[in-house]
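Just wondering, can you check both lines?
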Amino acid sequence: MERLRLVLPTAEYKAACLDYRKEFEQHNDVMHGTAGLSHMESFEAWLKDIQNSHLEEELTNDRVPATTYLAVTVDTHHLIGMVNIRHRLNDVLKTSGGHIGYSVRASKRQMGYATEMLGLALEKCKTLRIPRVLITCDQDNIASAKTIKNNQGQLSQSFMHEGAMIEHYWIDLTEEA
């Protein structure tokens, strides 16, 4: 039974998103998969940015089309985590970042939510026709590696990048897999 669903952010989630960011700040934690929520000057600026992030003509610099989702509980709509799906890879994402970034608020970790979120994100990748999904994590992030492996992630390589050991996992979404 699914406990979560992925929804697109809207103005009605402003308080929930700001509370989510505050929880990460209180734990001095990094917010992966939030499309820059941690450093946006306002919720409204962030929302506008992510609402246009799937449009090629709206992208600048080295950005690729992407969709950001909120992972909310099915029953109470409580914000548990966030997922960012990059529709394709560029050189930066091929090294560090991959197709999917995600995070779970500290108070809801070690409850299986990350595994469920990643599974839901992989279903979205299928609709985007991404046949193989690259997910990266720091080698010392045991929880993330476990989440990826729980979703059929296969370790392909480990390497040093900017002072951290990075692991690359691939998940094959083709019918034959």
